[in-house]
Amino acid sequence: MWYKSITPVYQTGDPGALPGIRSKQGGDVMTLTVIVKNNNVEKAIRTLKKKVLKEGLLKEIKQRQYYEKPSLKRQRKMKENIKRAQKAKKMRERDL
Fold first, then answer.
1. CB of 33 within 8 A of CB of 14?
2. Domain of 59, in residue numbers
3. What distance in Å separates the CA atoms of residue 58 and residue 25, rounded to the nearest whole number?
């Protein structure tokens, strides 16, 4: 998993390689690319924040900041599944 030890890595084979994040164990590589147009850095930062929020990275990093016992992890996932199912049911009922 990429979250245990984060080290910046440059992808190979691409002349305009962007830094990625890869674990020391050789796990997943994750890159988020944001293009700055017309030197509008503020807009690029907003775009980056939206991408990070959509991917759920901040939530995952906060969860993995401390060890979570397997029993608590199962409870959390069960609650998330119930919440997701209730939300889907609510959306289906609204569409009818």
1. no
2. 33-65
3. 22
Cα separation of the two ends of the chain: 42
Would you say residue 29 has pLDDT above 70?
no
Closest CA relative to residue 3, chosen from 66, 45, 53: 66
**Co-location of 42 and 23 in the same domain:** no
Q: How far apart are CA 79 and CA 70, in angstroms?
A: 14
Answer positive or negative: Cα dihedral of 74, 78, 79, 81: positive
Q: What's the whole-model pTM score?
A: 0.52
Contact 17, 10 (CB under 8 A): yes
